[in-house]
């Protein structure tokens, strides 16, 4: 049997770790690894047009599967392109292994052509970033990198010089056992005891939920029922906690709606469940706060805590719910449910006012129709900016749909690359990229990746020919908009020129038919919807402190934006409120 080289051994370890594809762009320093993949049937090389796309795609795959995904870039400029997508994966706690191939090992430190120091460059966006300098080092170092990515949830980076990858692997290298799943984390008994006491003493409890409630929907609902608590959520908690939730009071934060803000401020005990909610201006400072998180470094970094609980949400609630004294007083819960429904009734008026006849098309209308027509188990990838607003307010979660975005890192151009990763996981599952024209055009070259790999991603393009969120930021600062306009082509014609299905929609009555036709198409498709650039949105509560770093405005030109089918949910939840 021919002797393995380091690249072949590297690929074998990735396969044993469960990696099924490596996203990237080929280059000379990567050649040994790419050739090893070519000769291996258990892993595929996914060619993209930009390495940033490779990193975003790997991050999305990891978020969909919960398992390790991988990407690669060639030496110097090639792997530098990975960095933005790796930042996003790392801040989303997506387990990703990045291969940063390197210049010849004998030239490191001598300002060689394309020289960088990837082991140093990627340290801020990874749990682990190291250089493989000899064949004997590789198996253990790669194992360590994998276990950092999986165990801590985030990115690991391995820098591998091309000449080292070509060298023979060590004789009888030991086959390392690999950690590929994270354990459950239960809080200590003393923390549970303290939390029980706080809950039993409180009269008005509110739960505020983030992405850490994934897999804990039943436990959250049982606990909310036991303590008669309204349940609000952050954007990343929406897909996990909003559906089948009779305690729902909406979302707080810069994209918020409903009564979540009031519920978090009018309680006497606020319990933060699995959220690293970044906008502390929306959090109260005069109520008791408990935070439950599987990442201890997250505890207390957004607000002053009365109790920090280290544990995952599901295990914590399983320990907690049987021990608390059930509450019978629903007055606070019912009050918040009523406020929530009233708040949604108010903003829906703007949405329902001849919106199906408005030209240019209201983006709220596009999001609402998309929500109705998309599959029950669709994966939505969402561009940063105004698309975040429409996704937050219109996409209806149901426990089967997924919503992926750059919700923690906030990068433009994430939706299309993330759709690529999501679609590779399951070609039969509907994947919809909610793209803004600014974000789409930034990495538009990778629309060709859809065509090349025949990925049936459906791109729904919210085309307002502007950087709408940036315009709103300028408005907030009292500045005239400048440098925000986009001179766009007919994106549908571009899609057709690439060999995909493309249709342009300029009138509301054309929208539903265009989306249905695109969804029926077996290959990649793009629906270019010309939307109103003046359709902007504001959160339910605004203060001067909330303006920093985001677009907020009370100007009369700003529309409320509606909330889609969430009003129906709020109305149905009101049936639980006892009538006098």
Would you kindly provide a brief summary of this structure?
The protein is α/β, with parallel strands linked by helices and about 575 residues long. It is built from 23 helices and 19 strands. The strands form 3 sheets. Strands 10-9-8-7-11-12-13 form a 7-stranded mixed sheet.
Describe the structure.
About 3% of the residues have low confidence. It is globular, with a radius of gyration of 25 Å. The longest helix has 22 residues. α1 packs across α2, α1 packs parallel to α7 and α15 packs parallel to α22. The protein is an alpha/beta fold. The chain has 23 helices and 19 strands. The strands form three sheets. A seven-stranded mixed beta sheet has the order 10-9-8-7-11-12-13.
The biggest sheet amounts to: 7 strands, mixed
Count of extended strands: 19
Helix content bin: 25-40%
Cα shape: globular
The overall pLDDT average reads 89
Q: Taking Cα atoms only, what radius of gyration do you get, to the nearest Å?
A: 25 Å
Number of DSSP helical runs:
23
- Oligomer classification: single chain
Cα(first) to Cα(last) distance is 82 Å
Computed structural class = alpha/beta
Q: How do the strands of the widest beta sheet line up side by side?
A: 10-9-8-7-11-12-13
Write the layout of secondary structure elements.
Elements: H1 6-16, E1 21-24, H2 31-38, E2 44-47, H3 51-65, E3 69-73, H4 77-80, H5 83-91, E4 96-102, H6 118-121, E5 128-131, H7 138-152, E6 155-161, H8 162-166, H9 189-201, E7 205-209, H10 217-227, E8 231-233, H11 238-241, E9 248-251, E10 257-258, H12 260-265, E11 269-273, E12 288-293, E13 307-310, H13 313-320, H14 331-352, H15 363-373, E14 379-382, H16 386-394, E15 402-405, H17 415-425, E16 431-436, H18 437-442, H19 447-452, E17 458-463, H20 468-476, H21 491-498, E18 501-505, H22 508-520, E19 525-530, H23 566-573
Parallel strand pairs: 1-2, 1-3, 3-4, 4-6, 5-6, 7-8, 7-11, 8-9, 11-12, 12-13, 14-15, 14-16, 16-17, 17-19, 18-19
Antiparallel strand pairs: 9-10
Helix pairs in contact: 1-2, 1-7, 3-5, 3-17, 10-13, 14-23, 15-22
